[in-house]
Amino acid sequence: MQDIRNKLKEAEEQISEVEDRLEEIMDAEHKREKRLKTNEESLRELWDNVKRTNICIIGVPEGEEREKGTEKIFQEIIAENFPNMGNEPLIQIQEAQQVPYKINPRRNTPRHIIIKLTKIKDKEKILKAAREKKQVTYKGTPIRLLADFSAETLQSRREWHDILNVMKGKNLQPRLLYPARLSFRFEGEIKTFSDKQKLREFKYSNTKPTLKKIPKRSSLNKKRNVKKKRLQNH
């Protein structure tokens, strides 16, 4: 019996050592994931800062840039859609380029044009005018003027879209702030959230039925999860 007790004690000590080691490993893994997330956020923030004064032009037909140059195309777009800006101080362009093909060089869709301005207020003024006009054109062809973001920020902004649509129907006046924060008016106050978890916490802490109808997660995420499960089953 004494031998059995000694062996049990040794086994318990070994199990305790393994548990301690496992806890150390899990703690180290948690710290590693936290560092990785911090580095990713820093890189994302760096890219967004680099792109802070950029305007992305989508839909200009291929070949126009070779004939006129990207700066000339941008100037023509401004003159065609926002003639009143011609009376204001000249908008200075720091750099203009066409984004190279990354996936399929034979695709029919035109490449995006990136315009880097020297002043962020010029970018904001142009994008505001584009939103108010609703339909921007180049030689009569519909095009789009958008802010240029990192791929991670673009994805974060897309994930707010379904919630934005619901809030618009509830007259909450939602907006997407730079770079990917949701803002809306609720009971006379402006509420701002940087991620969905904080929005969920605010929603569950509030008894108003208007907020209760906001979806728990985006339909985009649901579709992605369904697609993932199908791939796993195959």
Write the layout of secondary structure elements.
Elements: H1 2-50, E1 54-58, H2 64-68, H3 70-81, E2 93-98, E3 113-117, H4 120-133, E4 136-138, E5 141-147, H5 151-158, H6 161-169, E6 175-177, E7 181-186, E8 189-193, H7 196-204, H8 209-212, H9 219-233
Antiparallel strand pairs: 1-3, 1-5, 2-3, 4-5, 6-7, 7-8
Order of helices and strands: HEHHEEHEEHHEEEHHH
Q: Specify the structural class.
A: alpha+beta
Helicity, as a percent range? 40-55%
Poorly predicted tracts of residues: none
Q: Order of strands across the widest beta sheet?
A: 2-3-1-5-4
* Average predicted local confidence, pLDDT: 81
* CATH homologous superfamily classification of the largest domain: L1 transposable element, RRM domain
Q: What is the overall silhouette? A: elongated
CATH topology of the largest domain: Alpha-Beta Plaits
What is the first-to-last residue Cα distance?
56 Å
Total number of helices: 9
Count all strands and give the number. Answer: 8
Percent in strands:
15-25%
Radius of gyration: 26 Å
> Number of folding domains?
2
Largest sheet composition: 5 strands, antiparallel
Name of the CATH architecture of the largest domain? 2-Layer Sandwich
- Top CATH class of the largest domain: Alpha Beta
